[in-house]
Task: inverse folding
């Protein structure tokens, strides 16, 4: 099982705990994990990556094994510790993010 | 009629207030979707328990919600807003072309006749329609054919923020976009025409009377007179008596004709409300006095409504979707501020009460008159 940690807003939206466990078919990559996550929790579609282009949203980051994987290729294999379940794959809201420029003016 | 339900969207969640017809004592909900930007919530005129809500976040983008029990519980609905054709580019603030990209849903307008049909106005500007209660959305792309590359964003982005449905003709829809102007379809959204004749934007456009590019802030209509439209433009309060084909100014004696919302009384089609703001530079009321202005003559002659509103040291703004009216006999009027206050007048604006003082910045206020 692949362990995925979700930030607070996405937990609320998914109705899940902080950590979710997913069956993910090999190869275990960012793309296959996100596909499995969105399949298990359809309300998360579009919140982590664009629904059409599949690009990561600008203020979302991916961490695992104390590394920032946000800019790794989507189809690159995830670390072995994530694949065997020792470490979680973390979906994180950027620390300074969340603000939009002006609001509805 | 037994009371009212007020749906308030803020930058950090939604709030629902309910009261009986006296509108003196209010039940105020816990925050709904706490921490999310709730641009707009609106109930179906057909089913008062059906509410649609736009939920967004700078981190996690646009999501959508629907309630079938008056806001007690919510269900996520589709957030897939895909332009029907390649949207190309639009004008950026500096006049260069900029890629057209979906950002968020600004306004939801449920159908007047079918609870499962709802329109969504989005940024970058486009109009979407759902006929299955929000389970799927389809764009009405003909709108973008009207000089789309000449449209440009206002301060908040290039948004379609106003959707006015004609109660006598379901194929007629008026929309407004900042900063592109007003547009109308008479065939259910297949084809559109710009309806900006009479608008002047001397400080905002190189050609002050251009066909498109005007920063229309809000449009309102009374259902008994669907050909009469009232507009708060960036500057100028305008009126049309031919469904937008021609506009004329009715700013009259207002202390400033800059502002965002405009509303029409529920029972008096010539009674309208605006909240003057000093200017686009300052975005707060003239003289630090929060005054709603009412015209009972459809414009030109305005009276200040101040009783119960702060008349000194007030520097809030009232955003375009943050004013609404109820349909109770005495004609209630409501608005919310960027300072987090929501005010209610149960007597057509003569006196005002504060429902809440300290919400987050208010983005939208909609009122449901409950049966």
Result:
């Amino acid at each position: 099982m692949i362990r995925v940690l979700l930030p607070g807003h996405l937990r609320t939206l998914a109705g899940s705990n902080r950590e979710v466990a997913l069956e993910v078919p090999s190869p275990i990559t960012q793309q296959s994990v996100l596909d499995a996550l969105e399949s298990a929790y359809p309300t998360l579609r579009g919140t982590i990556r664009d629904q059409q282009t599949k690009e990561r949203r600008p203020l979302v980051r991916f961490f695992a094994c104390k590394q920032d994987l946000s800019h790794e290729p989507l189809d690159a294999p995830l670390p072995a510790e994530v694949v065997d379940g020792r470490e979680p794959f973390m979906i994180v809201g950027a620390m300074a993010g969340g603000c939009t420029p002006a609001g509805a003016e | 009629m037994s009371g009212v339900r007020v749906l308030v969207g803020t930058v950090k969640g939604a709030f629902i207030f309910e009261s009986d017809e006296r509108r003196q004592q209010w039940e105020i909900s816990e925050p709904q979707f706490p921490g999310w930007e709730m641009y707009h919530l609106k109930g179906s005129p057909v089913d008062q328990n059906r509410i649609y809500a736009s939920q967004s976040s700078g981190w996690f983008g646009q999501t959508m919600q629907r309630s079938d029990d008056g806001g007690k519980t919510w269900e996520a609905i589709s957030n897939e807003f895909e332009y029907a054709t390649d949207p190309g580019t639009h004008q950026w603030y500096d006049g260069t072309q900029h890629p057209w990209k979906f950002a968020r849903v600004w306004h939801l307008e449920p159908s007047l006749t079918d609870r499962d049909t709802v329109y969504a106005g989005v940024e970058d500007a486009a109009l979407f329609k759902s006929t299955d209660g929000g389970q799927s959305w389809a764009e009405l792309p003909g709108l973008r054919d009207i000089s789309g590359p000449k449209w440009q964003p206002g301060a908040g982005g290039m948004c379609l923020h106003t959707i006015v449905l004609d109660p006598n003709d379901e194929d007629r829809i008026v929309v407004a976009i900042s900063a592109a102007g007003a547009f109308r379809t008479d065939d259910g959204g297949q084809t559109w025409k710009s309806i900006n004749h009479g608008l002047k934007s001397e400080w905002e456009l190189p050609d002050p009377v251009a066909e498109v590019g005007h920063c229309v802030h809000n449009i309102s209509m009374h259902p008994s007179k669907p050909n009469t439209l009232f507009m708060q433009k960036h500057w100028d309060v305008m009126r049309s008596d031919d469904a937008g084909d021609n506009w004329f100014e009715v700013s009259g004696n207002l202390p400033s004709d800059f502002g965002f919302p405009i509303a029409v009384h529920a029972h008096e089609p010539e009674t309208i409300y605006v909240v003057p703001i000093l200017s686009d530079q300052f975005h707060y009321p003239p003289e630090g006095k929060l005054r709603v202005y009412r015209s009972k003559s459809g414009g030109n002659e305005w009276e200040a409504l101040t009783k119960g509103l702060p008349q000194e040291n007030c520097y809030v703004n009232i955003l375009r979707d943050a004013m609404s009216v109820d349909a109770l006999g005495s004609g209630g009027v409501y608005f919310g501020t960027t300072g987090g206050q929501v005010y209610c007048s149960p007597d057509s604006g003569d006196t005002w009460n504060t429902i809440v003082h300290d919400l987050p910045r208010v983005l939208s206020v909609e009122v449901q008159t409950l049966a």
Remarks:
- Residues 30-40 of chain A form the longest helix (11 residues).
- Confidence is low (pLDDT under 50) at residues 100-105 of chain A.
- The beta strands of chain A are 2-5, 19-22, 60-64, 67-68, 89-93.
- The interface with chain B takes residues 7-10, 12-13, 42-43, 45-48, 51-52, 57, 59-60, 93-94, 97-105 of chain A (CB under 8 Å).
